[in-house]
Amino acid sequence: MNLAKGQVFDGEAGAPWALADYGEEDRPKLVRLLAAAELSVGAQVLEPGCGTGRLTAGLADAVGPPGRIVALALSRTWLALAPTVCQAMGQAT
Asked: What DSSP letter does each residue of the chain carry, written as one string?
């Protein structure tokens, strides 16, 4: 793990945007991203750079309960926050 990069992200973990929902400006971009990924129910997804898990929620909706998401991040602090964001998503690990 690149500790220096992880520490930079650790410092951002308390930023207001880190746990906030996507804003109105970002939602259309998220819809386009998920459509371009062509995910289907039951798909398995590797999400490198998951951060606090904000995108993970959209991925979980796309793959549904039978799907699986493996989310990775460099920051230990962000990984500690991800379960809070993803707690209702049984398919996210």
From this structure: --HHHHHHHHHHTTSHHHHSPPPTTTHHHHHHHHHHHT--TT-EEEEET-TTSHHHHHHHHHHTTT-EEEEE-S-HHHHHHHHHHHTT-TTB-
Residues 31-68 have pLDDT tens digits of: 898 899 999 999 999 998 887 777 888 888 889 999 99
Q: pLDDT-derived band of residue 22, with 50, 70 and 90 as boundaries?
A: confident
Query: CATH assignment of 3-86, given 2.60.40.10, 3.40.50.150, 3.20.20.70, 2.40.50.140?
Result: 3.40.50.150
Cα gap 66→15, rounded to integer Å = 33
User: What pTM does this model have?
Assistant: 0.70
Query: Which residue ranges make up each domain of the chain?
Result: 3-86
